[in-house]
Amino acid sequence: MKSRTWFRNLALLVGFAFLYIPILSMVVYSFNNSRLVTVWDTADSPTLKWYRVLFDNEQILSAAWLSIQVAAVTATGAVILGTLAGLVLARFGPFKGRTLLSAMTTAPLVMPEVITGLSLLLLFVSLEQLIGWPQGRGFITIVIAHITFSMAYVTVVVQSRLATFDDSLEEAALDLGARPAKVFFRITLPLILPAILSGWLLAFTLSWDDLVISQFVAGPGSTTLPMVVFSKVRLGVSPDINALATIMVTIVGIGVVLSAFYMRRQERRLALEMQLAKAEKA
Amino acid sequence: MARSQIRQTQKPPIDAWGAGRLGLIFSLLYRFGPPRWSQYVRKNWAGQRLVIGIPYLWLLLFFAVPFIIVLKLSFSEVRLAMPPFAPLIEKVSDAAYALNVNLGNYLFLLSDDLYVNSYLYSVKVAAVSTVFCLLIGYPMSYAIARSTPTMRNIWLMLIILPFWTSFLLRVYAWVGLLKTDGLINQFFGVFGLGPFTMMYTDFAVYIGIVYSYLPFMILPLYSNLEKHDLTLLEASADLGAGPVRSFLRITLPLSMPGIIAGSLLVFIPAVGEYVIPSLLGSSDQLMIGRVLSDEFFANRDWPVASAVSIAMLMLLVVPIVLFQRFQNQELAGAKK
After folding, report:
1. Which residues of A touch B157 (CB under 8 A)?
2. I want to staple B133 with a disulfide (CB 3.0 to 4.6 A). Which of A90, A144, B113, B217 is the partner?
């Protein structure tokens, strides 16, 4: 038994070292004064030089702002469509074309991005020829493309959340005379709210992070943050990208820790309520 | 299903005290009583159609139709125009239409070594990376699934956290580590070893893919391993099996669904990977995703790019269908 604990700890140690050393190296070197990313300049480090360079870069700032807007609109759209699709797949039983819907919601999870990007661009070009919309490519086309691939993730999250409890509560509400729309907003929606929230965050991140599909469907005037970063790192290493990575890791880290604390509090409250309920029964 | 059958065969309680002719009216009334949720949904067509229709139309228009366009375009000829391809059905004169179907693009793919080679290379890279992902991911998932519940949540959070930060930046971090004067070679240099050439090699691409896709391997594996019944292992230990034998005979076969789901989640997108080989790989041997985007952006040969993606899809159809089956089983299993 002891030898196995040793083995498990080793597996975790190696795995987490592999996952976190690259991120840590970026954080450390973002404070390095030297332009050469891998040479530590002891005399003048640590410094915030690269953060200043980053915040003076108009191109990066405007691309980041565009990415935030795209991601927010995408996440909202993906949550609406993904929740509907998840509800249909989990609750509506068999109907004509269910298999196709289920295939269309799981395929984007694994579809190589180059294929999705190419096919959507060809669609936009054909649509423009046929009906004159969308005129050119930009914000709208990026958002449509991002919603299409990220709603699949929301669908899966919502569907698996709905699968964890049966429809007896919804049925009870219908028996008591509520209309389906009311049942959805009063019963189903509160139950799947955690899944919807995490789906929103997931869609936001996927959109914020996407490079390949954006490259296909973006127009000349709409450059998202990953596109700027990619063209920068392709030309060689640039230390201000380390600073950007550090900022993103910090924001994500704070967010994750806060949400973990919140979830723990919720769990504790739930456990307390359960205990109280048991005590009352007894 | 069972419950609805019971409900349908149940007679209205009014029959129990023999209400005579009134019984008919009551049973009619009962029919208009509150139905089950799913029955209601099935009957209430207007609402249902709307709820089904919105995501359905969206996916048809933006996911299914684009593939038909790609398929159509892969049979077209390239033209110097905007958009740069010949229409499939062309009006030749007032009375005649020409059907321009040509298999030239596909024949071209087969005739040029570049395409066949990059297909084989992509499959090789994706397969090797998947195996390495499994080798690193399996012990980690196992260790996480067997830790205390509190630690489990912390480990899982740490697995997911890199996923929330930018994928591109995480790949970029490896440039600094793998370069000839990078951190890893500096580390080896302390012991008088190296420097090793790691950047722009297959090794760097494997590292990049394993690093980026590891969470996709670990999460399905973990959710499988966590559900195992540990008494089985106790039983096998009681019967005299050592830990290795118990693992091979019990844990490993039970975790096959997790292994398959995780491997498909890594393998399928890795075949079409574009960013990682562009940043870390060599420029002599291209992966198929890179070939596709070069055809499209650099050569502006949209028909060949479409043919490349159709060929890639053909290659991935079997794994994608497998993945969907597992996904559906998983969701059906959660209900029980």
Report:
1. 256, 260
2. B217
Q: How many CB pairs under 8 A join A and B?
A: 280
Alpha-carbon distances of B330 from A87, A107, A203, B221, B326, rounded to whole Å: 17, 15, 22, 12, 6
Interface pTM, i.e. ipTM: 0.87
Of A20, A25, A256, the CB nearest to B157: A256
| Chain A: closest CA distance from residue B95 (Å) | 22
Q: Cα distance from B183 to chain A (closest Cα, Å)?
A: 7
Start-to-end CA span in chain B (Å) = 14
Q: Which domain range does residue B171 map to? A: 109-335
Q: Whole-model pTM?
A: 0.85
Predicted confidence at residue B20, as pLDDT, reads 45
pLDDT tens readout for residues B184-236: 888 888 888 878 888 889 999 999 999 999 999 999 999 899 888 888 888 88
What is the rounded CA–CA span in Å between residue B220 and residue A206?
A: 19
DSSP string, B174-224: HHHHHSTTSHHHHHHHHTT------TTSHHHHHHHHHHHHHHHHHHHHHHH
Identify whether residues B150 and B221 lie together within a single domain.
yes
Give yes or no: residues B65 and B122 share one domain: no
Mean pLDDT in order along chain A per 10 residues (282 residues): 74 93 90 74 78 90 95 96 92 83 88 92 90 84 95 91 82 83 87 89 92 92 92 82 91 86 81 83 68
Q: pLDDT (tens digit, 9 = 90+) per residue, B254-302?
A: 999 899 999 999 999 999 999 999 999 988 888 999 999 988 888 888 8
Superfamily in which the A59-225 domain is placed by CATH: MetI-like (1.10.3720.10)
